[in-house]
Amino acid sequence: MLLRTALNACLITVLCGLVFLASTTLQAQTTSPAPAGAQPGLYLVFPFENVGSSPRLDWLGEGLEELTIQFLSDGGEQVYSHAGRAGEFERYGLPMTAKLSRATMLRIAQDLDADYVVFGSFNSDGNSLTVNSRVLRVDPPALLPPVKESAALSSLMELQTGLVWKMVAANERAYPLALKDFAKLQRPLRLDAFEHFVRGVLASEDEPRLRELKEAARLEPNWPDPAFALGETYASRNDCNAALPWLARVPKVNQRYVEAAFAIGVCRLQMNQPDKAEEIYIALQDSLRERTKRESGGSVVTGGEPPEVLNNLAVAMARQGNSSGAIANLRRATDMDPDEDDYPFNLGLISLRTGDFANAAVFFREASEREPDSPDDRAFLIQALEKAGKKTEADEEREAATEALGPNALPAVRIESKTDGNKVDISKMEPVKSDAVAHLDRVKTELDVAPLRLEIESASVPAKAPPVSGGTTAASAAVEETPATRIRRGRQEFSAGRLDAAEVEFRAALASDSGNAAAHRGLAEVARRRGNLDGAVKELQSSLQSRDSAFVRTMLAKIYLDQKKVDLARTELESVLKLAPNYTEAKVLLEHLQNSKPGGTH
């Protein structure tokens, strides 16, 4: 949740120029009302702009964004979390404090498959406050009339409650909640606690961040958000003793529970408590399955775990000697994330522990192919090959690694034994049944929240929502079979590893909208997971024909690299950096290609 700031104003100019035509289209529709059949959809909220003269109130920009997200979610709407929006900014290298054009907002919303963008501005003299909010419909692009509220600054919570309700009621046909019912769903917060919280997450240094967050937690002891932010901050400092009590205060019903539980498990592994870590991750799996089942209308009973959870659960099991359970989870994680090298690396370590050097070499080779620049992956591959009696292959790998990484890049692969503290060269290691290699396993310390970004209404919200015309509830209206809902369901199925079900949803979306870029991207991911790289390329190219995207072009470049089509990969990455000059993943991949020999592979 911690916010990062970086100054890169020129990038905004570049992006705005790239979407000039889209901006022109939007300007022509700025007075267009919402279509009469407006339906519930997925919201993406941006920070509000301070148009007043007091920079002291700049914190309100992110504060109003946070309140809008919270109120929408508590009111039964689907909305991207702040982390979801911030992650997209980071992906494109956009400064967190950037002032974006409507066209740039539209592009980000399209990449996130959001239905509506919420943005606005505020003005305050320190006593009174005026907030303007607008909704930008993504497809077809249309800008709804502004919604405005004014009140005393001390009445911020009530003001923003009314403004969000007006905004949603104006956007959605037959919105079922009256203002008083909508207000009852919101958590009452003290203004001073909320200010301390926002200032805390905006702080760039740990000490002021901790000070502000602790004050917010003191003023609102039952509010989970400051507790989570405090736990996250301490965990980032590897201070697990301080992090655990705060993380434990995040309840299961809170949107940050998954991240909090994941961090608790990481701490337990760092504290060498694998039994407790295993309990945490098994409970987290159960929670994710319940969530997936709820969001799918009760049809899903298994799956949905992120690969990072599977990896850390496997590490906990392996440290306790449960190799079979660890292998099963790592194989699933390996299949779910075809780019990550940590999962096959950990499989290689398990094979080493059992003395199965041939299989260890297979896993370390896969890890080194996924991450060619990792000296550790290559060093373990070489040593496993030597121990398996494949000296010629080991020499070839050593020569290739030296050529690619340099003569002194490979580390000396050694294992620190827990029993005697000695360091033993792995090439001389006999089959090991203890946890002598436990110190070498790779624990994932960060959870990719991209599949978990949606804040779905809690199970209690539909019960509170009065019925709309025809006896349906807000919840049932929200699940109308639009291409967007099909795509979101397809992604849930994909995350759970149910590729056939995911494909059905993506194709159903295309049946309604043949040019849907997100549906083509989903089919590409399914094809890649199945090993059908040509099919994945075809779907990604179809996606790009509908909508250009740095993310999709980077996916395409990775597949070209898998196919050894280096020139095509380089062309795509160069196009990515024209579109999003600070896209880190593309920059790293292109730099690697530029450092490779002409005609070489990745």
At the fourth CATH level, what is the homologous superfamily of the largest domain? ABC-type transport auxiliary lipoprotein component
**What is the radius of gyration?**
25 Å
Q: How many helices in DSSP terms?
A: 28
Compute the separation of the termini in Å.
34 Å
Number-wise, the strands total 10
CATH class of the largest domain: Alpha Beta
Low-confidence stretches: 1-38, 299-303, 415-438, 454-479
Proportion in β-strands: 5-15%
Overall helicity: 55-70%
Name the average pLDDT.
81
Which descriptor suits the 3D outline? globular
Please identify the structural class as seen in this structure.
alpha/beta
| Named CATH topology of the largest domain | Rossmann fold
CATH architecture of the largest domain: 3-Layer(aba) Sandwich
